[in-house]
Amino acid sequence: MSLTVEEAGRALADPGAYADEARLHAALTLLRREDPVRWVEAPGYNPFWAITRHADVLEIERDHEVFLNAPRPLLATAVQDEINRTRAEQGIGLRTLVHMDDPDHRVVRAIGADWFRPKAMRALEPRIRELARRYVDRMAILGDSCDFVRQVSVHYPLYVILSLLGLPESDFDRMLKLTQELFGGDDTELRRGETPEEVLEVLMEFFAYFQELTKARRARPTDDLASAIANATVDGEPLNDFDTTSYYVIIATAGHDTTSSTISGGLHALIEHPDQLRRLQDDPGLMPLAVDEMIRWVSPVKEFMRTATTDYELRGATIRAGESVVLSYPSANRDEDVFDDPFRFDVGRDPNKHLAFGFGVHYCLGAALARIETRAFFEELLPRLESIELAGTPEGTATTFVGGLKRLPIRYSLRG
């Protein structure tokens, strides 16, 4: 069945579309070709402009003084938009780097920036490789089959990021559950419930946990990222409780779910493209390029929103002051004007100008960590992998923000 441009635009506000890759990319391809700056009125949502071309996403990302994160940093229903606005006014909502604009964004981002610089990443790499080995060993212990997402890929990056924060392993399962509930709000299987009150319960559990952590790290600072956040100051004053907790939440969640999606989606791509799997096994030097191709292919962050502060012309359309745009990263990363044969999975793709980490002042703080984690895992797995195939049908997460596969049943044979 062929899509209309109107239907294609509404797909960006349909969580189910992101669980159906064929449907999603059919819609995004149509929008890039027919109406790349598309005004969308989707049932239950405030209207927005859908931005689907790589050049346009880049242009808006660059102009961070015209296009702000506030007040709609993420696509949400009209009801949730109003709830978020009210909570922000009351000071009880998340206020992460995703929600901030300069000058606050620049100052608060600097608190954790040193922990994600190359020197810090090199220091963390032995721990990352130890955990990569642990989870490939786990695949061997599980035998010749597993659900790769549930038994491997959701755990490995979570252990990495929580190790960076300095949290005890006894708390990791709790953090996994809360993370999945926070990002799985559109998925009937992952979310805690449907009501705003149930969503708020998840946030309040995060807040309660991290407020206790803050107290502990202020009383007895340690050499970890949690202590750096807990003891950070802005203009000589410590961060307030909600800003401190929000910082923990964005590190713990964004640093986990996106990488998990990349690793599981990357393995799925290698299974579906056995020639590329063999190519990578034969030439391990391609791994850095392969990792970026996995990131482009999966695009785990589906969108961010920006709101115009003044009228802005883009491809003949006038985006009025106060109107919001949805930046579609899966679409930008399949743009035919930028990527040669964009629907080909190519572990040697070079150049690869994907926008999966964003661009400019809001470029992902953890981009280097995500690359190291993904590279370490596949450098541990592929030399030991003798065979691999699907053992069932993969399932995607219903979402409009962050997600990927929630099930990847595989059958395999490992050496050692």
Automatic annotation (TrEMBL):
<keyword id="KW-0408">Iron</keyword>
<dbReference type="Pfam" id="PF00067">
    <property type="entry name" value="p450"/>
</dbReference>
<dbReference type="InterPro" id="IPR036396">
    <property type="entry name" value="Cyt_P450_sf"/>
</dbReference>
<protein>
    <submittedName>
        <fullName>Cytochrome P450</fullName>
    </submittedName>
</protein>
<comment type="similarity">
    <text>Belongs to the cytochrome P450 family.</text>
</comment>
<dbReference type="InterPro" id="IPR002397">
    <property type="entry name" value="Cyt_P450_B"/>
</dbReference>
<keyword id="KW-0560">Oxidoreductase</keyword>
<keyword id="KW-0349">Heme</keyword>
<dbReference type="InterPro" id="IPR017972">
    <property type="entry name" value="Cyt_P450_CS"/>
</dbReference>
<keyword id="KW-0479">Metal-binding</keyword>
<dbReference type="InterPro" id="IPR001128">
    <property type="entry name" value="Cyt_P450"/>
</dbReference>
<keyword id="KW-0503">Monooxygenase</keyword>
